[in-house]
Amino acid sequence: MKGSSRAAFVIASIILCFMGVHYTYYTLYGSHESVLIDYLEQRIKGAESLDELVVEYEASLELVAAYERDRPDMDVLTRYQQQSIEPYKTKIRLETAIEVWEKKAWEYQRVWFSWTAGLVLFLVGAAGFVLYRNWRILSVHIAGLAQMIWSASPTPMIVGALAEHERLLGAKLLMTVMTFVLLMAAWYMSSRMQNPDHS
Predict the structure, then answer these.
(1) Residue-level pLDDT, tens digit, the chain, 199 residues
(2) Helix, strand, coil proportions of the chain in percent (round to 5)?
(3) Is residue 138 situated within a structural domain?
């Protein structure tokens, strides 16, 4: 049992260290912009809230309506055809940015819920193991740790919604660090329980 718990500790430590380095790099260096990016894309990526994007989107809807009033034959264009004609192009890019922002916001909530559920399992399993010294209860502890690691695992970046992506990235970095600290604390407590003489 001691060897398998050491192996689990080493594997979890390696995964958490990898994720910590990954998130630290992307937090410090991952959001550099190309000089080739156009003005609209800069406004989309620079948006600090969903409301900013919605205001831009509403303005683009007004431009589309005015454009179609002047050119009645344009309202029959397919979405593919619209992608290359202004103001449709702007409207479509803003729609995409809003959808991405909403997905990232939903993922932010899901990740915190999932990580918190893992934390509860981790603590319940640890408390149960301390009280009953039963390996079956320890499996709840390990399941909680696995849930916490999975919740903090990397998410691919989707174009747009940079502020929301950075918020998610910061949350995952924090989760990784907290999970690693909890893992170290659990390992320390386990070592003390196995060798009470060496405190």
Answers:
(1) 566 666 776 777 777 776 777 777 766 766 555 554 566 777 777 777 788 888 888 888 888 888 888 877 766 777 777 777 788 888 888 888 888 888 888 888 888 898 899 899 889 988 888 888 777 777 888 888 888 888 887 666 555 556 677 777 788 888 888 888 888 888 888 777 777 665 4
(2) 80, 0, 20
(3) yes
| Residue 79 domain flag | yes
Domain region containing 30:
2-194
For the chain, what is the domain count?
1
Question: Which spans in the chain are helix H?
Answer: 2-29, 39-46, 50-70, 79-82, 88-132, 135-151, 162-194
**Tokens 């909403």, residue located:** 102
